[in-house]
Write a structure and sequence with these properties.
By secondary structure, the protein is an alpha/beta fold. It is built from 12 helices and 18 strands. The protein has helices at about 1-10, 30-60, 95-110, 135, 190-200, 210-220, 225-230, 230-235, 300-305, 325-335, 365-375, 395-400, and strands at about 20-25, 25, 130, 160, 180-185, 205, 240, 245, 250-255, 260-265, 270-275, 285, 295-300, 315-320, 345-355, 380-385, 390, 405-415. Strand 14 (about 315-320), helix 10 and strand 15 (about 345-355) form a beta-alpha-beta unit. It starts with a helix and ends with a strand.
Length: about 425
């Protein structure tokens, strides 16, 4: 009180504002300001707690599906698996959304920058490419049964020699083969893998569950089988597996296809024939040749690598020629490796049964674009293809199925990153 009197005596006005009332010698704040400060501090504390909980929860979401009461059924993966990275961690919600966005946009060509991405090649990505004829289609390899001047149909897939060991490099002096090749789809013509083993000393793992392939492997008189058996070095390098490539691990029904092979593609038991000239008569319903079904074992790429002990090895060349199963196999490979199989250096594919987008025409296929766009984002470049257009099938059965635009093509990719 004495201090206040002195301030008044020397000419200082006595504060009369209610915001400056004294209590025990200290100014008293406005209650509104006080409560506002308390509320802000509580909100800040809640924000910190939420951020910590959210960060921990997001980490859990990467290792296990989200568990909720109302939508727990969405965690079911019996039909549609949840995308994961190469370490089997579930992708974050942001990553999954972007991944889905890329797949959907390229599949339907909605807002994409290049509706022809599946056929946009870059030959400069490979300095020297080869179909391997120069190595395997020679007088030194008469096993193919054809004149060494042509070898038709035996050397369809191109490889880039830039990142392969020098030709005729022997693996005798090395503790391990200098390259690893997975050859899916062999039939009884193992020319690709056999030439890679003979020429570059690569370790070959060939896969084909077709009855014609199993019969070939079990035969000791077939020329190509004898070529493996009679060469001690090649016989150590070449390994054949009687299961195929698939989008799942298990047994599926594959049906008769062409050339003694099997496929996922199923024909209907009946087709409608309206070719008669008398339009007053109804169309005929004709039976088709019934396909024989074979319950055969298939495996995914991740499972195969794990079982063969190759998780830490690079696949130098992945060849896929599997009569239509390539889509399920490649899609599963991408979905379980974060959309980027960085453990592969080259991929050779034969595309089966695709069609073109009628809005853009030749060279634009949604089925192919969706896969190639993801490979491209992972650093793969299309360095060779049979043609931008592919080739159309002349099979009558496809016309009867209303599949009037059925195409095939060959493509080779390289990843140098």
């Amino acid at each position: 009180m004495r201090r206040r009197q002195l301030r008044t005596e020397v000419g200082h006005p006595t504060p009369t504002n209610d915001n400056y009332l004294e209590t025990k010698g200290r100014p008293k704040r406005n209650p509104i300001v006080l409560w506002g400060s308390i509320i802000l501090n509580v909100l800040f504390l809640l924000h910190v707690i939420y951020r910590r909980y959210s960060s921990k929860n997001n980490q859990n979401l990467r290792t296990q599906p989200r568990k909720t009461t109302r939508l727990s059924h969405l965690n079911d993966e019996s039909v549609v698996p949840i995308p994961r990275d190469s370490k089997d961690n579930i992708l974050s919600l942001e990553e999954r959304l972007r991944y889905l966005e890329m797949k959907f946009a390229t599949r339907v060509s909605f807002g994409t920058k290049d509706p022809f991405v599946g056929s946009s090649d870059n030959p400069k990505a490979c300095g020297r490419q080869s179909d391997l004829k120069e190595f395997g289609c020679t007088e030194n390899h008469p096993y193919n049964g054809y004149s060494f001047k042509d070898c038709p149909g035996f050397f369809d897939h191109h490889v880039c020699l830039d990142i392969l060991p020098p030709p005729n490099s022997s693996s005798k002096k090395k503790k391990a083969p200098p390259c690893l090749v997975y050859d899916f789809g062999v039939r009884d013509m193992p020319t690709f893998g056999l030439t890679m083993a003979q020429t570059f000393g690569c370790e070959i793992h060939a896969f084909d569950p077709s009855p014609v392939s199993v019969k070939w492997w079990n035969s000791e008189t077939h020329a190509a089988r004898a070529a493996i058996l009679n060469d001690p070095e090649v016989s150590k390098l070449y390994h054949f597996h009687t299961y195929g490539s698939g989008g799942i691990d298990g047994t599926i029904n594959l049906v008769d296809y062409d050339w003694g092979q099997v496929s996922l593609l199923r024909y209907p038991p009946y087709v409608v024939d309206c070719n008669q000239t008398d339009i007053s008569k109804p169309c005929k319903v004709n039976p088709t040749n019934q396909q024989k079904a074979y319950p055969l074992e298939v495996k995914t790429l991740n499972t195969i690598r794990k079982e063969l002990g190759h998780q830490d090895r690079i696949i130098d060349y992945l060849k896929i020629d599997v009569e239509g199963s390539e889509f399920a196999f490649l899609e599963q490979m991408l979905d379980t490796n974060g959309g980027c199989p960085a453990f592969i250096r080259q991929i050779g594919i034969e595309w089966h049964h695709f069609s073109v987008d009628s809005r853009y025409g030749e060279g634009s296929s949604g089925q192919v674009n969706a896969i190639v766009a993801l490979l491209k984002s992972c650093g793969f470049e299309l360095f060779w293809q049979w043609s931008k257009l592919g080739w159309k099938s002349g099979e009558r059965i496809f016309h009867d199925l209303e599949m009037k635009d059925v195409r095939y093509n060959l493509a080779s990719f390289i990843r140098k990153k």
